[in-house]
Amino acid sequence: MGVDIVEVARIQQILSSPRASRFIRRVFTAEEIRACAGTAHPAQGYAARFAAKEAVAKALGTGFRKGVTPNSIMVKGGEFNQPAITLTGTALEAARALKAGRIHVSLTHSTSTACALVVVEKSD
User: Fold this and answer.
1) Residue 11 in 3-state DSSP?
2) Per-residue pLDDT tens for 78-115?
3) What is the DSSP string of 78-90?
């Protein structure tokens, strides 16, 4: 299990900075960028997804170490769709090493904070 909380203002500050595009490309997939950029409050979407990535990394027991990067964890859906996690690269390898099955994720956000809870089921 993993949980994480992100301050939306922190993400908004990054999005308003000269390093915004570098941060976005390093942390988020193209699909995540399209999903967040098309909303009225992109910082909230990015914050919720970042919290989910952190929560997944915690649930895998790696954090963002051992080659697991934010970009290897993709958060699909959200806003009005049930969110789902897709893993690639070293995050997928870490999940396989744990014999991970389904990954459940719940996202929530307000104007000030975003939170994610992730539960990784073991496969048989």
Assistant:
1) helix
2) 666 789 999 999 999 999 999 999 999 999 999 999 99
3) ETTEEEEEEE-HH
Backbone torsion region of residue 23, taken as left when φ is above 0, otherwise alpha when ψ lies between -120 and 50, otherwise beta: alpha
Dihedral (CA of 46, 53, 5, 118) sign: positive
3 state SS of 106: strand
pLDDT score of 14 more than 90: yes
Yes or no: say if 93 and 69 are a contact pair by the CB < 8 Å rule: no
With 0-12 CB in 10 A as exposed, 13-18 as middle and 19+ as buried, what is 64?
Answer: middle
pTM, entire model: 0.93
The pLDDT of residue 74 is 97
Architecture of the CATH domain 2-122? Alpha-Beta Complex (3.90)
Pairwise CA distance, residues 43 & 60, whole Å: 26
Task: Tell me the C-alpha to C-alpha distance, in Å, between residue 89 and each of 20, 66, 70, 99, 119.
Answer: 24, 11, 11, 15, 20
The domain spans of the chain are 2-122
Q: Which residues contact 51 (CB under 8 A, 6 or more apart)?
A: 4, 5, 6, 107, 114, 115, 116
